[in-house]
Amino acid sequence: NENTIKVNSKHLANIDKLELKHNQNTLVFGFVANNFIKSSKNQFKYRIKNYIDDWVEISQGQDVSLAKVPPGKYVLEILGSNNDGVWSQQVKEIEFIIHPPFWLSWYAYILYAIFIGIISFIIIKELAYRAKLRKEIMAERYKHEAEENLFIEKTKFFTNISHEFRTPLTL
């Protein structure tokens, strides 16, 4: 069957979609045509939408190797020709999705946002608490200075009065 695909050495008939983990991102595709007359002259064209957008020609027996394909959704399109160079009209499409790792998934980003929000909240609360504490310390210092100045003024006043009682002014 021309639509037979081999994945991890297992033939899978009529596969249209592959879902892979983030660490399954090194791929090798091999193509075989069902034309057995001068099969060495069979040709293939492929492209991978969202990765290799131009058609690439390869000959019978060549594999397509892709290394470290980033997470995403891709479509492998394949065209074949016979030994006379007549290209098939039907494009075989295989969709493959490489899922991102947990730490790059949408729910991980939500967790990061919550974590950053909590940390920001804690920092803002701590800064507000420190500002309040600084304000209370300044108020306490001002109050203490005012009481000290009042004490000094009272002492001066009573010193002067007691001096006047001891040495009265004579006119």
Notes on the protein architecture:
This protein has 171 residues and is an alpha+beta fold. Helices cover 36% and strands 29% of the residues. The strands form 3 sheets. It has a 5-stranded mixed sheet, with no helix packed on it. A hairpin with a 2-residue loop joins strand 5 (43-49) and strand 6. The longest helix has 61 residues, at 106-166. The protein is rod-shaped, with a radius of gyration of 42 Å. It starts with a strand and ends in a 5-residue tail after the last helix.
What is the end-to-end distance? 135 Å
Count all strands and give the number. 9
pLDDT averaged residue by residue: 85
Oligomer: single chain
State Rg. 42 Å
The percent of residues in helical segments reads: 25-40%
Strand order in space, largest sheet: 3-9-8-5-6
Uncertain regions spanning at least 5 consecutive residues:
none
Number of helical regions: 1
> Any idea what the shape is?
rod-shaped
Class per helix and strand makeup: alpha+beta
Report the portion of residues in β strands. 25-35%
